[in-house]
Amino acid sequence: MGFENNNYTTTGHHTFENRGGDDDKHAPYKCNDVNAFLGRGYYFWEDNLPFAKHWGGIWYINNGKKYFVGEFSIKCELNYFFDLVGNRDHQKILRETAKLLAKRRAGLSALPIGKIIEFLKAASKDPDDIFFEKFNYLVIRAADDTAQKTSEKHNFADNKYNSADLNPCYIICVVLKNEILSSGIKVVHTSN
Amino acid sequence: METIDKTLSAFEKYLENISDAKLDKMLSKIDEMGIKGPTVDEYFSNLTDNVGSFFNDISETSTIADVERLFCDTRIKRSQKFEIPSLPSIPKEYPTQVTATQDCLYAGENTYFMAA
After folding, report:
1. ipTM > 0.90 (yes/no)
2. Which of B2, B6, B11 to mutate to probe the A interface, most A CBs <10 Å?
3. Which one of A91, A93, A104, A182 counts the least CB within 10 Å of its CB?
């Protein structure tokens, strides 16, 4: 697990609706809607079953539905891993591209991250343009710092307010599942 | 992958060269996806947790008592289920009214304020 041999490998927890059929056979499901915080793709909580269940409770149980949590193995070459959690270069790319978009057109100054990522993907697909294949990542990871439910902040020292979150919530968006998901689904939770 | 400077330079040139019509078309397609979520500024301000809010909540007219309350509130938020260490005492020689900016504030073991 983690960074090894030019790959990043991890476990992803995917929450999806239980409609009473063979929903688990077709998981994971692609997210194309308002929840696509990192653009279109297949979404996972990185190794975070408690939060996957918490989210299932909010999104499905509260709406009178049932859900599954499926566990997947994720493996990605580092060249295709856009990491907004631990890679300062990648964070810089996102910050600077946001500024460049705002410079190009004032109305683009507050684009959500998901839209910027979709813009970068689109710009990267045109073989006639200078940006061709400059943003062809297959896995994008970010920290959801608003997801406090499972966070565990520990102070570094006595009498200091500085702390580290030892159980942060990471979102992983897999752009192309066939190249990234190295195992089939293992259903690890079924709601009542 | 190339260096980020090359990537950013290519993106800048891309934006310089793209026509308004093509840009409109791309943005329209992306808008149709209905994606919401945090902006880049919101994402990175969340990563800095509530330290930023601690400083932002202090104005030029904040009193020691205001700062102490905010400092305490911040620690309560951050420490959650963990024990909160006692606050250091405020030295008597400090004025009751302070001029506070983000650059000159320091919350340490024995000191509330330290000039940068």
Report:
1. no
2. B11
3. A182
Tokens matching residue A52: 């996957």
Q: What is the widest separation between alpha-carbon atoms in chain A?
A: 58
% of chain A residues with pLDDT over 70:
98
B33 touches chain A (CB under 8 A): yes
Question: Going by DSSP bridges, is the β-strand pair A66-77/A7-18 parallel, antiparallel, or unpaired?
Answer: antiparallel
Alpha carbon distance B78, B80 (integer Å): 6
Of A104, A122, A145, the CB nearest to B15: A104
Span B14-29, pLDDT tens digits = 999 999 999 999 999 8
pTM (predicted TM-score): 0.73
Domain count across chain A = 1
Cα distance from B111 to chain A (closest Cα, Å)? 11
Show the domain range for A16: 2-190
CA of B14: how far to CAs of A129, B7, B74, in Å?
7, 10, 44
